[in-house]
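Posting this for the archive.
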Amino acid sequence: MNRPAPEIRILQGSDQPYPEADINVVIDVIRAFTVAHVAFLRGVREILLVNTVEEAMALKAHNPAFLLAGEIGGLGIPGFDLDNSPYRLAQAELEGRTLVQKTTNGVKATLAALAARHLFVTGYSNALTTAAHVRQLLARDELRTVNVIASHGQDDDDLACAEFIRDQILGLRQLSSEDVIGRIRRSRPAAKFLAEPPGKFEPRDLDFCIQSLPSAFVMEVDRAAEVPSIRKGLAARI
């Protein structure tokens, strides 16, 4: 007996109640979950997720070794150790450290998506790995519904990545990597990184956001922790 095809919904925005689903995948290409992916590649142990600067500062006060990373309006937050630049984060010494992340879209959307049985975050850099893992979960377990959440509500960078992940899960292969990269580069959030002359935003960040770096891990959110946190989970083979 054939199993019914999974129901995969693409949603946009970080501040809506999301419909119930077995799996939620939250996307922030420019730049929160590109930053998270780079952080894990650089040896970070876990990433705690908070909605406010005050929550981040309170965690740091109790745990001085924690590193605060994030942005407001795309720019670094006074008192934080790191901003939201994957390029700058890639230069930092992160082995074994814990990050606390606060961002405008990706983190906010993730904290609104905790109700699903499985919750993953990704940018384009780990999209192939994430899609392959979700596809295996759907094949193996009694799961049917997936929300793929583009956290930038009005922009095409996350939407392109969401459509790419949906196609990869379903085996459609309608969007090529070149299609997705082109849409990310043409999106409104990318414009500030391509400005001439460069302004307040690090132009090299965009290179990280459009580079596919399939990994041996997915970024899964531990929803049961006192502070929801992203951890490395062993990924399905692509």
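DSSP finds nine helices and nine strands in the chain. The CA atoms of residues 34 and 200 lie 19 Å apart.
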